[in-house]
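Data availability (excerpt). The following record was deposited with the supplementary files.
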Amino acid sequence: MRPPAFLPLLSAAAGISTFAIMDALMKRASMLSGVYAALLWRSVIGAVLALAIWRLVTGGPWPDRRRLMLHAARAAVTCCMAFTFFWGLVRTPMAVGMALSFIAPIIALFMTALFLGEPVTRRALVASALGLAGVAVIGAGRLSGGMGSESGIGMLAVLGSAVLYAANLVMQRHQAQLAAPAEIAFFQSLFMAMLLGLASLLPAVRAYAMPVDTAWSDIAGGAVLATISLMLLSWGWARAPANRLLPVEYSAFLWSALMGYLWFGERLGAATLVGVVLIVAGCWHGTMRGAGGASKRAEEAPPHRADRAVTVEETPVFSILLRNCKNNRKCGPDSTLADLDAAQNPAQGPMSLQPPLCRIGRHAPTLPSGPMR
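Predicted structure:
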């Protein structure tokens, strides 16, 4: 039975607001103990919490090798993305960091062109121009306000995180279609903890692995909120087309500005407001056109069930891939995700984790832009 239309929106909105509070907790913990220690122990605590929810509350079978590889691949991207984001966030106001991260969907438009062979349209060029103008306005505002070198490096780190987030976006809805929210939350935290834990084998890194006593409450709170938010967002993204959730995603800026003001005394400058308007306008311009047909198909399609194959027509996330595949007469309207991936990667076999399907296989014109750290 399909849930009421407002529930996925409500779930996504709750997930976004929860993530903003988590960002504030992680920023404070990172300022006290460093980004590495805060992220490592947030992942460890989050994995334990998500495991309890997944196995004791929601249940479900252990994922097969295909899903495990997808979880691991996305966790690796998320790990790098989260580290660079929080490292930059320590050095920049929260509203500025969130505004800069909104450029990720525009980057994803060009990733689609690079990995899927899609033409770079005039709409994408206009979107990128607006986004870059927004970044320039924010940077100019920070410079005029006496921005130090640390703040400049922090902004560059957030922009680097946005590039990684664009790659992360391409896996997002695919993962939500294949796995339950609690499973996604557990394996993302588990694989992130494993990757960060391996880094602690290096003596130079091990010295930064333990947080100070005053940071533990923020790290634990961040783990709880990150787990809750990830499940809320996964549940919403699995049940609504991305273009419907897109306006909700931009509420992250308002929450970040509020958290920055309440927790760190960060005031919102006019340049940041103008910059985020330009970036959001670019994202909107580049992502909204052409999503109507995909959204309509998604609304008419039956809800996802784990015990049946998901057809490509039911997932607007793969509409560009499907169009390319049909043009080459390799797939039909009833093709499954495995059929599509086999056509895109004949040498790799069905559902490989090679590009473009899982790494750069997201339908960029319907990419959401909210956080997934």
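Summary of structural features: The first helix runs from residue 6 to 33.
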